[in-house]
From TrEMBL:
<dbReference type="InterPro" id="IPR015424">
    <property type="entry name" value="PyrdxlP-dep_Trfase"/>
</dbReference>
<dbReference type="GO" id="GO:0018826">
    <property type="term" value="F:methionine gamma-lyase activity"/>
</dbReference>
<dbReference type="Pfam" id="PF01053">
    <property type="entry name" value="Cys_Met_Meta_PP"/>
</dbReference>
<protein>
    <recommendedName>
        <fullName>Methionine gamma-lyase</fullName>
    </recommendedName>
</protein>
<dbReference type="GO" id="GO:0019346">
    <property type="term" value="P:transsulfuration"/>
</dbReference>
<dbReference type="InterPro" id="IPR015422">
    <property type="entry name" value="PyrdxlP-dep_Trfase_small"/>
</dbReference>
<comment type="similarity">
    <text>Belongs to the trans-sulfuration enzymes family.</text>
</comment>
<dbReference type="InterPro" id="IPR000277">
    <property type="entry name" value="Cys/Met-Metab_PyrdxlP-dep_enz"/>
</dbReference>
<dbReference type="GO" id="GO:0051289">
    <property type="term" value="P:protein homotetramerization"/>
</dbReference>
<feature type="modified residue" description="N6-(pyridoxal phosphate)lysine">
    <location>
        <position position="231"/>
    </location>
</feature>
<dbReference type="GO" id="GO:0006555">
    <property type="term" value="P:methionine metabolic process"/>
</dbReference>
<dbReference type="GO" id="GO:0042631">
    <property type="term" value="P:cellular response to water deprivation"/>
</dbReference>
<dbReference type="InterPro" id="IPR015421">
    <property type="entry name" value="PyrdxlP-dep_Trfase_major"/>
</dbReference>
<dbReference type="GO" id="GO:0009970">
    <property type="term" value="P:cellular response to sulfate starvation"/>
</dbReference>
<dbReference type="GO" id="GO:0030170">
    <property type="term" value="F:pyridoxal phosphate binding"/>
</dbReference>
<dbReference type="GO" id="GO:0005829">
    <property type="term" value="C:cytosol"/>
</dbReference>
<keyword id="KW-0663">Pyridoxal phosphate</keyword>
């Protein structure tokens, strides 16, 4: 039954708005939050597909619009604001990342753009990593300066002195980088980078799309964690979705009826999508472990074949010692590796054999699928960068980004790779 507004005055045990920060292992944190049951006792929660919600008394609606009553005590207005099913997925995301709160969006780019617009104002300044997903780079390089008067300085985040110099105290509002860079797999020193930014009063936003479960940026010092849930968290390459994880104050601010970027820009997640994703998160830990296990084995074997392989789990990776120190134990070093074939022609030839001759993987963008996906980053997901920017980001023309899947046996899939490589 819908609660009467007066009932709320005596209710001190209502559902917390979103999950509280936890120091637990990500899988343990997910298991510690409340299991949402279905309306009739089903083990799976019900889907709340309503766009709008009724109240029993007119006074209740007034109190909801003034902010006196809200989703933290089961009062809902409209699904562009809070929706119960999306809210449950958001609790899971907050538990996964160890943040006070989270809210899920229609795409990863909508999560990134919304949080940046919430934290930055016209005339503001952002410091960001030189090596970013092409869409994010384009957002910061072209769209924000033109539409919002927000400028960005790009830096090599492995050069901490350069980072400190780029941050202008009193002007820079956000420091943005990826936990594992797309596609070079540079591992960010999140604790030290966060310290540098916080010393100058700057908010740290980290994209953790490449490393859910593997890294926990909020526990390492970041203020906000963003995700494209379309990738590893979904795992099925069939859903577009995103998430913003951070403080309760940030999430409530982004959902504010008068000034919230999520509320007013409206990148709303459909409740049916939220239900689908909430059923996949419980086995994310198992999937990430297998993605990482196979990526580690393949990287080592590819190196033995003489290929130039980039993978944080290899001892010759520039940030291997850092990664070993900050990753969550048992989850490995992630499911992505890169092979530098030096030229686009050689990269395309290898991928053609791998897909069309031996069925090792598929030529496609995105990542986190159960099949191995591969693409030549310079001409695909990083194509928004000009040649100089690609060179500065360390993206070779022949860099093949590979998202390692887990179908078939490891021995079977490696045999397919080896046959394609030898044939090439």
């Amino acid at each position: 039954m819908k609660r009467n507004a007066r009932d709320d005055d005596n209710n001190n045990g209502g559902e917390a708005l979103l999950a509280k920060k936890s120091s637990l292992d990500p899988a343990a944190a997910l298991a510690s939050i409340r299991h949402e049951f279905g309306e009739h006792g089903g083990v799976n929660m019900s889907i709340e597909a309503s766009a709008t919600f009724t109240v029993m008394e007119p006074e209740t609606m007034r109190r909801m619009f003034t902010g006196e009553l809200g989703p933290d005590n089961d009062f809902f207005v409209y699904s562009r604001h809070f929706n119960p099913t999306v809210l449950n997925l958001s609790r899971q995301m907050a538990a996964l990342e160890g943040t006070e709160a989270a809210y899920c969006t229609s795409s990863g780019m909508s999560a990134i753009s919304s949080v940046m617009l919430q934290l930055c104002s016209s005339g503001g300044h952002v410091v960001a990593s030189k090596t970013l997903y092409g869409g994010t780079h384009a957002l910061l390089t072209h769209f924000f300066p033109r539409a919002c008067n927000i400028t960005t300085s790009f830096v090599d985040i492995t050069d901490h002195e350069a980072v400190a110099e780029a941050i202008v105290e009193g002007q820079t509002q956000v420091f943005y980088f990826e936990a594992m860079a797309n596609p070079t797999l540079t591992v960010a020193d999140i604790p030290e980078l966060s310290r540098i930014a916080h010393d100058k009063g700057v908010t740290v936003v980290v994209d953790n799309t490449f490393a859910p479960m593997v890294l926990s940026p909020a526990k390492l010092g970041a203020d906000v964690v963003v995700h494209s849930i379309s990738k590893f968290i979904s795992g099925g390459a069939d859903i577009i979705a995103g998430a913003v994880c951070g403080s309760e104050k940030l999430v409530k601010g982004m959902m504010d009826l008068r000034g919230g970027s999520l509320m007013l820009l409206g990148p709303t997640m459909n409740a049916k999508v939220a239900f689908e994703l909430s059923e996949r998160i419980p086995h994310l830990a198992l999937r990430m472990k297998e993605h990482s296990r196979r990526a580690q084995v393949y990287a080592e074997k590819m190196k033995e074949l003489g290929l130039k392989v980039i993978y944080p789990g290899l001892e010759d990776h520039p940030q291997h010692k850092l990664a070993r120190r900050i990753v969550n134990k048992e989850y490995g070093y992630g499911g992505l590796l890169s092979i530098d074939m030096e030229t686009e022609e050689r990269a395309n030839k290898l991928m053609t054999y791998l897909q069309n001759a031996t069925q090792f993987g598929l030529m496609a963008v995105s990542l986190g699928y159960y099949e191995t996906l591969m693409s030549c980053s310079g001409s695909s997901t990083s194509s928004e960068l000009d040649p100089d920017q690609k060179e500065a980001a360390g993206i070779s023309p022949g860099l093949v980004r590979m998202s390692v899947g887990y179908v078939g046996t490891l021995e079977q899939k490696w045999s397919q790779f080896e046959k394609a490589f030898l044939r090439m």
